[in-house]
Amino acid sequence: MDNTKFTKQFVALTMATLRADGIIEQVELDTIKEQAADLELDMVEVEKFIAEENNLQQNVNIENYIKEIGATVENLGDKHCIMDGCILVALSDKILKESEIKVLKFVCEALGFSLERMVLDIAIIAQNDRSIKIEGSDSNFDEVIEDEDYKN
After folding, report:
1. Cβ atoms within 10 A of the Cβ of 113, count?
2. Which of 30, 97, 129, 147 has its CA 20 to 30 A from that of 23?
3. H or E segment at 101?
């Protein structure tokens, strides 16, 4: 694997996800860096590509950009790694927004995955972290629901 090429692809698509809601949150940026470190990517390159993406993505059509970058990812393992990275970035602030889903859908399609697989991947992560909120839902899993039928 060409690590520089993969690093650029990984940073480009995770940064696109980070910028989906128009807010750059430190927790999302930290998630990208943590994942890059876990993948043993060159952190100097990661920082350089993050800076480049910050400047670049402000002036591009995000859907076309994601398609363009996604088309360059050839290895299936790389595709899975990038998709997982994007999902983790979207969920890192504990709120999944419609704008993030839209970008995740673009990434999913650009990498050649089914939307069903993406939804299942999101569900797997969310089911293990009940603090994640979904935009438009007021569900609170921290509250215990008591029902007379379940007593005794």
Report:
1. 17
2. 129
3. helix 98-111
